[in-house]
Specification:
Blueprint lengths: L10 E6 L3 E8 L2 E9 L6 H9 L9 E5 L3 E2 L2 E3 L6 E3 H4 L8 E5 H8 L8 E5 L9 E6 L3 E9 L2 E5 L7 E2 L4 H13 L11 E2 H4 L5 H12 L8 H5 L7 H25 L5 E3 L2 H5 L6 H8 L5 H6 L2 E4 L4 H12 L2
Parallel strand pairs: 1-4, 4-8, 10-15, 15-16
Antiparallel strand pairs: 1-2, 2-3, 5-6, 6-7, 9-16, 10-11, 11-12, 13-14
Length: 327
């Protein structure tokens, strides 16, 4: 392999989620040569990256890797996949020995710095995307949250793990669901309180567990269903599935507006992720109502722009934007 920069130079970007890993090149600010692999593949992430970059005549100058996991001192332990790796594994695969890891929803937040009206479907509030702080939530394999704040020096993405904030019962029925859920997935509870990680309900990984708890509460014996089963038919009449979807909608709507209030996201609240993009019918009046209802602050919540991202490419776009922001 030639390492000379006489051939056109490029940078590597990647979006590594719990289910899939996407790798791409950035040349002159444009994303190209996108390839997708299974994150559950027997090969490690560094091996996937090495195989990918070896297909081109020169190594990338640098790399920005977005990962669905917390990052600590350059090390990654994937939250929803059995994989771990280190920035030192990726640096030798670049000309500049330069690799940067960012959380996948830090990348998603960076994607909001270039989002346009054609990239979204409007759900509520102002139609045109206004200037201001922005928040993005993504129910996919897990639940991601990213925040973009506007500063005097330009937009800045704020990393975090907002998908693991707590949610609690909203109705008497949900009290019983939460109690049943403790028998299904006790690790996600906040001590002995009826409070669980939001991701435990609001993700592809969590939906089957929620359905199991709802079924127990209704006294129903139901088969084990996948997220795809639970969302395949918008007009399904099974009481356990209907109630599972209702709980999903109302809690997701509430935390979307809660986070908008926390960050004063007048620039918009954006819903993304595989579950959302594949099932836009979920974002109906039940979801919108939960988003807007907030007691004395209902009017403020109702005024936040709310959008559904059309594409699942926001991770790569965000990694590109993070790369470009570094100069």
């Amino acid at each position: 392999m030639l390492h000379s920069r006489a051939v056109q130079s490029w940078s590597l970007i990647s979006d590594i989620g719990g289910s899939s890993t996407r790798l791409a090149r950035v040349l002159d600010g444009e994303i190209g040569d996108v390839e997708t692999f299974s994150t559950q593949n027997a090969r490690s992430i560094p091996e996937l990256v090495s195989d990918y970059v070896s297909r081109f005549p020169v190594l990338p100058n640098r790399a920005v890797i977005a990962v669905a996991a917390p990052i600590s001192k350059g090390a990654v332990q994937m939250t929803n996949a059995q994989s771990n790796f280190d920035v030192a594994d990726i640096e030798p695969l670049t000309c500049d020995q330069s690799a940067r890891f960012i959380n996948d929803f830090e990348a998603a937040a960076w994607a909001l710095s270039t989002v346009e009206s054609d990239d979204v479907d409007h759900l509520s509030g102002p139609t045109r995307i206004p200037y201001g702080n922005r928040v993005i939530l993504g129910p996919g394999t897990g639940l991601g949250v990213g925040i973009l704040v506007q500063t005097p020096y330009g937009p800045m993405a704020v990393p975090g793990e907002g998908g693991h904030i707590g949610i609690s019962p909203q109705t008497d029925f949900e009290v019983e669901v939460f109690k049943a859920f403790r028998t299904v997935w006790p690790d996600v509870f906040f001590g002995q309180r009826l409070c669980v990680e939001a991701e435990a309900f609001l993700s592809g990984r969590g939906l089957p567990h929620l359905h199991q708890a709802v079924s127990q509460t209704l006294g129903m014996t139901t088969p084990d269903l996948t997220p795809q089963d639970l969302l395949a038919n918008p007009k399904v009449t099974c009481p356990a599935i209907v109630k599972t979807r209702e709980i999903f909608r109302t809690h997701l709507g509430q935390i979307c507006a809660d986070l908008a209030l926390t960050t004063m996201s007048r620039g918009g609240v954006f819903i993304a992720g595989g579950v959302a993009v594949k099932n836009p019918w979920l974002f109906d009046e039940t979801f919108i109502g939960a988003f807007r209802d907030g007691g004395r602050f209902s009017a403020l919540r109702s005024g936040f722009p709310l959008y559904l991202m059309k594409s699942t490419d926001f991770g790569l776009v965000g990694a590109r934007n993070a790369l470009m922001s570094a100069g």
